[in-house]
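## retry 2 of 3
previous attempt timed out at serialization; input unchanged, resubmitting
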Amino acid sequence: MTGAPPPFEPTFVLRPVPAPLKPFVAAMWGFAASDFPHTRERVLPVARAQLLVNLEADALHWFGGPAFRDAHRIGGAGVSGAYDRPFAIDTGDQRRIVGVVFHPGGAGPLLGVPGAELAGAHVPLDALPGARHLRQRLLEAPRGQVLARLEAWLLTRVPGAAVDPAVGFALKRLDRGATVRDVARALDYSPRRLRRHFAAAVGLNPKRYAGLARFHRVVRRVAAGAPDSWADLALDAGYVDQAHLVRDFRAFSGLTPTQYRPRAPDEPNHVPLDEA
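## retry succeeded, writing output
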């Protein structure tokens, strides 16, 4: 016996999203791990709000500021809004956790809070309308039924909820690389009107959202393996050149593309910060 720690073998489960939730929800998931080889992770910014419930302990921690030295804590259930800067999390909070990833602009209609109010924030779930005691109900769920109970709660939020069709149109066009001016023209909106509607629903203005979408096109490629040509990747992703890609990557992640090492290829937004 060498006394070496057991291998890091997390369990990740995805629950299919039922049709009534598909306009709002991108994924429902559960994650469990006995331990991590590192204590904190950098989380890359995303335009998608996420609901998180820690089933192991009544706490969720995150860290911001220079070198992620500023520590924050809420109870064991909360919502992380759309954000455009990285923050860090405590891997201890992920030992047994479930979550919901919303489409951009999808959290507000279901949770009863405009996306702009959630943006850049970590909000206790109990502070949102009709969400008190959800964590306790999940803790009381029979084994293997936690995600089913979470889904049932989300389905109660669907009546009366709707995504602004203009925002949905803008999201699709911006994801394909359209300019904000072109999207506004297609909607017969002024750029100012588009910015106002879009930011209220999504939590980011459309130009910032488009930049973040472009950044993630690069992240997905790099997570799968270093490209043969950074210059070609930059052009394919919509950057002017390689230098433009590097500046944007650092602005959104705090890392250069070659410093970026995700926890796993299929978890590109989680980057280990330190060793335990």
